[in-house]
Amino acid sequence: MATNLDSFGRIDRRPREALALERAIASLGDGGPSLLAFGNGKSYGDTCHNGAGILVPMRSHRAILGFDAETGLLTAEAGTSLEEIIAHAAPHGYFLPVSPGTRFVTLGGAIANDVHGKNHHVRGTFGCHVTGFELLRSDGKRYPCSAAENPDLFAATIGGMGLTGIILSASIKLMRVGSLDVEEEITPFANLDAYFGLAEASDAANEYAVAWVDQLSGTNRGVLLTGNHADNGNFHVASSATRLSVPFEMPFSMLNGLSLKTFNFAYFHAKARKTGKTLSPYGSFFYPLDAVGNWNRLYGPKGLYQHQSVIPFAAAPTVVPQMLAASREAGQASFLTVLKRFGAMASPGLFSFPRPGYTLTMDFSNRGASTLKLLDRLDALTVEAGGRVNPYKDQRMSAATFGTSFPEWTALERYRDPRFSSDFWRRTALSLSAHAPALAAE
Ligand SMILES: Cc1cc2nc3c(=O)[nH]c(=O)nc-3n(C[C@H](O)[C@H](O)[C@H](O)COP(=O)(O)OP(=O)(O)OC[C@H]3O[C@@H](n4cnc5c(N)ncnc54)[C@H](O)[C@@H]3O)c2cc1C
Questions:
Q1: Which residue segment(s) compose the domain that 367 sits in?
Q2: 41 touches ligand 1 (CB under 6 Å)
Q3: pLDDT digits (tens, 9 = 90+) for 205-248
Q4: Number of domains present in the structure of the chain
């Protein structure tokens, strides 16, 4: 059955072959085309696609299977969204220990990409809070996985991008909070030197810290948003029903240099005016973009590329400004330019994107060859600085960039289920192993 299962970047759009989980289970053991679980398509690129095989959509498997209000341990089917987990646990005083910038991600997708949030410096990645899961492999067996049981598969699946099998259900330890809402402080900065001067102390004092940078301003001014869960907020779970929605695809990208310059100017001044601490509803603090339905349609029919890199601490004050300058010089405007300091907490995952350093994220309208050229330049700056490019935001990085960024790919390849694959893995890892088969066999 061909179904519309786009990724968030919408660069490569076509109907995709999909098979319901029950039918995928029945087909195991037969050989046949490769499989890949599909969560909610909130990855930007092709890690959630499998053009040579079949996708197994997981969103309809979303039962909450258990919740202990004393310990905060929640068990759910892997298609459960983070939004549904919040709705279940918040009345008992709990929130997600790690939350990405959208609540429309599934539990399985959050584990498979080992996602991070605005509090990486204190809580690490999503996988740090997962106590166990059940993994279906192509031999038809269901493997209970945890630090104690099948620990190798546990580690390979956290950040394993769906390549080790299908997570059927998982348990996660939620975080007790004073309220869902956040006591937020906004600190404008005039340039990146000022930001780098603030970032470490802000992390030490706050659960959450993230900076927005005005990429089109020659000065790289911006605002640092910090916060902690407020004791005087509430546990009211906001409806995610979007009040605003982009009803149809724009015929061309609305996010061009002029519109973004105007937006950035207005956003910077609106934020910079708000000094002191304010109580922010959790929806607008964690998920501001969820408020506008289908906002990726603003990028028009050609879609968008997101580039996320992490640059080691020592190199970041030099390299991050170079990356912003390279984007400006290429005439490419980034709608969302976000800078954040990753901490040192190690993930239990074998293959996980974050590492200590500063992570820079930029979104670009797809303008064809000129955008691809810029993205290659950003890759080169990243790799030369000893950094790495995020696979689950990617649709085009070269196999060489991938191999240099993630020498540990050979270890993940050893745990990959032979029946599971993705467009991303074929484009990068398998192309490397085709040239040097011994690498994958090491
Ligand atoms: C607006 C926005 C903001 C974002 N902010 C952040 C952020 O702050 N931090 C961050 O880290 N990421 C962020 N992301 C990216 C997003 O969190 C991740 O890509 C996430 O993994 C997507 O989950 P999904 O459920 O949509 O899975 P999909 O995108 O559908 O799939 C992701 C991967 O998970 C695998 N997978 C899905 N379900 C299963 C399963 N049951 N078993 C095994 N494998 C499975 C797929 O095979 C694929 O490899 C953001 C994305 C958007 C659109």
A1: 182-399
A2: yes
A3: 999 999 999 988 889 999 999 999 999 999 999 776 656 666 66
A4: 3
Q: Containing H/E element for 407?
A: none
Check whether residue 123 and residue 171 sit in a common domain. yes
Give the whole-angstrom CA distance, residue 179 versus residue 191: 33
Alpha carbon 99 to chain centroid distance?
A: 9
Triad 37, 41, 46: Cα angle to 5° = 80
Give the H/E segment covering residue 381: helix 369-384
Residues 242-300 pLDDT 10s:
566 666 665 566 666 667 777 777 777 777 777 778 999 999 999 988 887 787 888 88
Q: Is 145 in the pocket of ligand 1 (CB under 6 A)?
A: no
Cα(416) to centroid(ligand 1), Å: 18
- Structural domain ending residue among the three candidates 148, 176, 204: 176
Q: Identify which of 10, 34, 102 to mutate to test ligand 1's pocket (most ligand atoms within 8 A of the CB).
A: 102
Burial code (b: 16+ CB inside 10 Å, e: under 16) for 239-265 equals: ebeeeeebeeeeeebebeeeebeeebe
CA distance 196 to 336: 19
349 in a structural domain? yes
Our mutation pick for probing the ligand 1 site, out of 6, 21, 61, 115, counting the most ligand atoms within 8 A of Cβ, is 115
To test the pocket of ligand 1, the residue of 10, 16, 19, 43 to mutate (highest count of ligand atoms within 8 Å of its CB) is 43
